[in-house]
Write a structure and sequence with these properties.
Mean pLDDT: 97
Oligomer: single chain
Protein name: MocE family 2Fe-2S type ferredoxin
CATH superfamily: Rieske [2Fe-2S] iron-sulphur domain
CATH architecture: 3-layer Sandwich
Number of strands: 11
Number of helices: 0
Domain Rieske: 4-100
Helix content: under 10%
Cofactor: [2Fe-2S] cluster
CATH topology: Rieske Iron-sulfur Protein
Organism: Roseinatronobacter alkalisoli
Number of domains: 1
Strand order of the largest sheet: 2-3-4-9
CATH class: Mainly Beta
Keywords: 2Fe-2S, Iron, Iron-sulfur, Metal-binding
Length: 102
């Protein structure tokens, strides 16, 4: 699979995320407290709400609709009502850019 240039590293604050749309799909790209980058599906597995509107705390994203949480490093659903994990995607940084492999 090709690597896709998603954004600049500076586009995402520490402990935050942005929405990235590509080829009819929505992704969420996160910047951890350790200054690492991660990528998951951009929609909650419970009711397909955009996670980019949610709250990032430590290594978790909280869905803005029903407060389900996921570990964005692994995609693991951590709190109901979500019970299906998020897909995760490889991320690398290169020359101040964030690239994802989808």
């Amino acid at each position: 699979m090709p690597w896709i240039d998603a954004c600049a590293t500076d586009d995402i604050e520490t402990e935050d995320l942005i929405r990235f749309d590509h080829d009819g799909r929505t992704f969420a790209i996160y910047r951890s407290p350790d200054d690492e980058f991660f990528c998951t599906d951009g929609l909650c597995t419970h009711e397909q709400v955009h996670l980019a509107d949610g709250l990032v705390m430590d290594y978790e994203i909280e869905c803005p609709k029903h407060n389900a949480t996921f570990d964005y490093r692994t995609g693991e659903a951590k709190r109901a009502p979500a019970c299906v994990n998020l897909n995760t995607y490889p991320v690398r940084t290169e020359g101040g850019r964030v690239l994802i492999e989808v």
